[in-house]
Each structure stands twice: as structure tokens, then as C-alpha cells.
């Protein structure tokens, strides 16, 4: 029985990995300018091709960013769902993404007004501060509110407050700043550079490694805090680690791509259904791959559905992610009534 389960987990991981590779190739090839797969391999080998600038300066960084940040978003959602024991907890729903967006907007307007160049690290730091502010309010509410629905409503309200402050900041920004803020605040993987990709790869890789090291304590935590304490798990330290790591992942996403909705909720649940288990040692890599697949697919649709007009990534992720959230809520309601 255990052997058949392990085979299923490996098959799911393999299929998710193949899907990521296939979607990376598809995203690079397809667009307003089609690039044949043969040209891509030729360019990698060092040969000159007609659309090399589009391939290396636009398509490749954008596709890699969608893959990395999509995985990070799903992993952040998984950590938050585990932390709150809440199936619809996620960076967007709990207002964490909105808090990160608010502080990044403040920093962008202030530094642009002072004609100061904004680095990738400065954006991540600003987004992390905003994410921690929102997370702090959510944690305060979670101590007073134990009902799942009320916690989600509290997170949505925090998100609205942060969004209102962001809109206020945009009102007093100059025209050039408004254009930059508007494009970023809608959620998009466009405009990515190799510097951005290098920074996000470093941050996400280190964070993923630390989360993976927490697989055993997380597995015990899922079975209850008392059980985890009996196994020698430091609950306080584990909860702090989950908050910090989920905030770092959320900050990295918002800093580079803006707020992206529903991926952090939908991807972990879809992956859990495929695996048939909630064991962290399998869920952590599967969540990352599942989030990458989700975002790569949605970004492909956002670029090509109404080309040359491009949709915001959050518009597409909401179309596929919102039904998953509704399904989760209906299923939990049925379980409570049974």
C-alpha cells in the first residue's frame, strides 16, 4: 500500500515537472512573434537567429519569472494554510499582498520623486515590510476571531484598507509615476530583466530550501500543536519561521510582479488532490511545481488570448482560481453538515 502511494507521488511530481518544461517552451515560442523551437535551440548553441532580442531580452526572463514566482506564490499559500489551519488562507485573500503593494507604492513614489534608482533588493525589502505589517494585523485578528469565515473577512478588510492607501498615494503621484504604478499594481510578468530573474532566483531558492528543511516539524504541526510539542517541536519557533518565510515569498512576488490573486489558494489544493496526501515532504516540491504550471498557463493566456492587447495576470488567475475557492468552501460546508 505504502509503495503504491509513493509511486503515485513520484508520478505526480514527474508529470508536474514535464508540464513546467512544456509550458516554458510554449511560452517562449508563442506570442505576437512566433519563434520556432529549432531557433531556440540554435540560439542556445550560439547561432544567430532573427528574433534573438525578443527571445533573450523579453520572452526568456518573463517566462522564467512566471515559473519562479508562480511556484513561490503557491508555496506561500501552502505555508499560510498550514499556519492558520485554514484552507482558504493565502497572501491575496488575507491582505498580505495588498500590504506589500502599499509599502512598495510609497517607496516607488518617494524614490522616483527624488530621482533615485530603485533596485530589486529595495523593492523586496519594501514589500517585506508591508507584508509583515499586514501579517501582524492578521495575527492579531486570528487571536480574537476563531471562525474561518471571519478571519477571511478580516483579511479582505485589511486588503481594502491597504488598497485605499495605495490609491491615495497614486492620486498625488506624477503622471510618469502613475503609469509605472498602474502597470505594476494590475499584476504582470512583463518588463522582467535578467537582473530581476537572478535576484528572485536567489531569494526563492534559499527560502524553498529552508521550507523543505521544515518538512518534518510541519508534518507534526498538521496533526496538532500538542502532538507536535510531544515530539519535541518548538511550536513558537516554527510559527515564527512560517510567518517570516511566507512573508519573504509574498514580498518577492509583489516586488516584481505586483499582487496576483488566487494562485496561493488554488494551486496547493489542486496539488493536494492530485497527490492524495498532505505530507509536507511531498507537498512542498509539488506545490512549487503546481504554482509554476498555474502561472505559466495563465500568463500564456494573458499574452495571447486578445493579442496584441495583454490582460493582467490577476484577471486570468481569478477566472481559474475563484471556482476552486468556491468548491473548497462548499465541500467544507458539506463536511460540517454531514
From TrEMBL:
TM annotation in the entry: 7-28, 63-80, 92-112, 118-139, 151-173, 193-215, 236-262, 282-302, 311-330
Places the protein is found: Cell membrane
Membrane protein topology class: Multi-pass membrane protein
Keywords linked to the UniProt accession: Cell membrane, Membrane, Transmembrane, Transmembrane helix, Transport
Stored Gene3D superfamilies: ABC transporter involved in vitamin B12 uptake, BtuC
Major localization listed first in the record, in broad terms: membrane
CDD domains: TM_ABC_iron-siderophores_like (cd06550)
Highest taxon in the source lineage: Bacteria
InterPro entries per the UniProt record, alphabetical: ABC_BtuC-like (IPR037294), ABC_transptr_permease_BtuC (IPR000522)
Family named by the database record: Belongs to the binding-protein-dependent transport system permease family. FecCD subfamily.
Protein name (Swiss-Prot/TrEMBL): Iron ABC transporter permease
Organism: Maccoyibacter intestinihominis
Lineage of producing organism: Bacteria, Bacillati, Bacillota, Clostridia, Lachnospirales
Amino acid at each position: 500500500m505504502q509503495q503504491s502511494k509513493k509511486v503515485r507521488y513520484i508520478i505526480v511530481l514527474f508529470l508536474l515537472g514535464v508540464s513546467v518544461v512544456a509550458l516554458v517552451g510554449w511560452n517562449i515560442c508563442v506570442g505576437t512573434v512566433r519563434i520556432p523551437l529549432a531557433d531556440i535551440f540554435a540560439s542556445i548553441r550560439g547561432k544567430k537567429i532573427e528574433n534573438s532580442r525578443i527571445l533573450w531580452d523579453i520572452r526568456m526572463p518573463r517566462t522564467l519569472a512566471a515559473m519562479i514566482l508562480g511556484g513561490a506564490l503557491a508555496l506561500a499559500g501552502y505555508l499560510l494554510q498550514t499556519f492558520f489551519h485554514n484552507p482558504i488562507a493565502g497572501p491575496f485573500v488575507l491582505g498580505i499582498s495588498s500590504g506589500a503593494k502599499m509599502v512598495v507604492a510609497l517607496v516607488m513614489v518617494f524614490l522616483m520623486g527624488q530621482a533615485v534608482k530603485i533596485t530589486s533588493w529595495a523593492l523586496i525589502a519594501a514589500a517585506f515590510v508591508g507584508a509583515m505589517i499586514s501579517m501582524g494585523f492578521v495575527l492579531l485578528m486570528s487571536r480574537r476571531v476563531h471562525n474561518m469565515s471571519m478571519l477571511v473577512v478580516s483579511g479582505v478588510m485589511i486588503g481594502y484598507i491597504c488598497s485605499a492607501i495605495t490609491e491615495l498615494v497614486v492620486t498625488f503621484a506624477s503622471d510618469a509615476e502613475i503609469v509605472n504604478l498602474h502597470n505594476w499594481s494590475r499584476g504582470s510578468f512583463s518588463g522582467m530583466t535578467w537582473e530581476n530573474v537572478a535576484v528572485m532566483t536567489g531569494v526563492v531558492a534559499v527560502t524553498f530550501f529552508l521550507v523543505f528543511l521544515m518538512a518534518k516539524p510541519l508534518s507534526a504541526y498538521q496533526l496538532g500543536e500538542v502532538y507536535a510539542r510531544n515530539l519535541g517541536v518548538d511550536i513558537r519557533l516554527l510559527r515564527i519561521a512560517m510567518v517570516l518565510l511566507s512573508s519573504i515569498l509574498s514580498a518577492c512576488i509583489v516586488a516584481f510582479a505586483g499582487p496576483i490573486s488566487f494562485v496561493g489558494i488554488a494551486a496547493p489544493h489542486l496539488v493536494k488532490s492530485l497527490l492524495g496526501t498532505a505530507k509536507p515532504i511531498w507537498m512542498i516540491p509539488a506545490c512549487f511545481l503546481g504554482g509554476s504550471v498555474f502561472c505559466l498557463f495563465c500568463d500564456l493566456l494573458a499574452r495571447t488570448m486578445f493579442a496584441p492587447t495583454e490582460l493582467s495576470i490577476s484577471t486570468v488567475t481569478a477566472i481559474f482560481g475563484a471556482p476552486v475557492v468556491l468548491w473548497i468552501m462548499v465541500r467544507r460546508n458539506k463536511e460540517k453538515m454531514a
